[in-house]
Write a structure and sequence with these properties.
By secondary structure, the chain is mainly α. The chain has helices at 2-16, 21-37, 55-58, 69-74, 80-87, 97-117, 121-145, 150-155, 172-182, 184-189, 196-209, 211-239, 250-290, 301-331. The N and C termini lie far apart (69 Å).
Amino acid sequence: MRVITCLLTTALLSACQPTPPAEAMLDDYLERLARVLEVDEPPLEAASLPRMPPARVLQVDIEPLSINLLEFWEFRRCGLAEILGERNSVLGRVMVPSQHLHMDGRILQQLRHCIDTLEDEELIELASELEDRKRQQWPARYWNATAAAPELRAFWSPATTPLEPGREASYQRALTALRFLTELPQELERQQWPERTDLEAQYQALEQYALGGRLLQSLTLGRRYIEAGSVMLERARQQSTLCPGGLQKRELEYARNVMVKVFIGNIQPWLAAVNRRASGVTTEYQALLAQQSGELRPALQPFAEQLSEHHLAFQDSLRDHVDRWKALFDSCDSKAIPSR
């Protein structure tokens, strides 16, 4: 009985979920097309969204480095001992990848300061050895905390809703955060490593806005509906529903109104905004992958290729839809938008 109750509750909750504005807008478009074209709406094509590989496949194990107590004590002279102490604390041992990255950045920055300011040759040599070992680990540390980070998985999670019409630019912070991660290696080289609060704010934006997942949902939703609309336009053209025997019906003008007021007025601006935002995110994500180690990058290459293919399929469907509208009016010896 409890199982049945849970199932009913789940079904009711699902039924109460409001339709995302973008989907409601596209639903309305297909309904209007069905009326003016006098054709049935085809079933929407099933679609699967690209997904990142499992976390266990992407995360790289990194062996911790250690120094003896005397060496640790000597590094008080250049301020490194305090950072190493924080790193080796109880909390330091359970840090998430982004916190590990921030700590390693601080250590590398302070090691460079030690090398530049210490006068003890043995200590300088030890600091140089530690810097070399840390830099050898850097590609894996950077990978774990950026390309393979939990926050990037949340960024690309499809468990979200499409971009809302009119609010497509509301997620700029997430795009800025993606660029921020890409620039971290350069910031380290310039000895301008960010403060922890600044870094955490960028990771929070990635997770909070889930811009990548919203775009995947938007691209998929737009393509499925636009492809269905293209099928309807092609059926109307083949069946000559708007101009049987070459005679133009009043519905041809109604169809023109749907194209101008609904498709061009509402649908196309949203599709164009999704396309622009997807282009920006794809560019920034490719830049982030380009910063990664050549040995690690192949693990995400199939996912990156799926993202590009998903975007291209969306663009192709939009171009085809515009062509279908033109073909429909051409078949009735009429212009899609008559010259005045």
